[in-house]
Design goal:
122 residues, extended
């Protein structure tokens, strides 16, 4: 009796809520800079792990940022839904309502962080 080889196919998926590939302070810029540390860490992970599918949300990307600036387009088919002024309006007034929470280790809207009761309410 011949041995039958079975090939097991595995699909690897990498999902990550990056909370901004653009620094928060540059969200209002027409041509924002990228957070090079986050880009480097993402690209390193992709090179090392080679996931079949990559899902990134809350990238805060804008149409002026090229796909190749994020991931190599020769390795992945990239589908994006970038932020727009209609979906995410940014004004000088709204920037003032965000604060860095050292407990959460991220920017939070000042009304929504339980760690900072001293933040202005309203």
């Amino acid at each position: 009796m011949d041995k039958v080889e079975r090939k097991i196919n595995k699909l690897s998926v990498f999902y990550h809520n990056v909370q901004g590939l653009i620094p928060f302070s540059h969200l209002a810029d027409e041509h924002p800079i990228l957070d090079q540390t986050k880009i480097f860490e993402l690209q390193r992970y992709v090179v090392e792990r080679k996931p079949d599918i990559i899902i990134l949300n809350e990238t805060w990307l804008k149409p002026g940022i090229l796909d190749d600036e994020i991931l190599p387009s020769e390795l992945y088919t990239i589908h994006r839904k970038d932020r727009s002024l209609e979906s995410h309006p940014v004004s000088d007034n709204s920037k003032k309502k965000w604060r860095w929470c050292f407990n959460c280790n991220k920017y939070k809207y000042y009304k929504r962080c339980q760690h900072n009761p001293h933040w202005p309410q309203g």
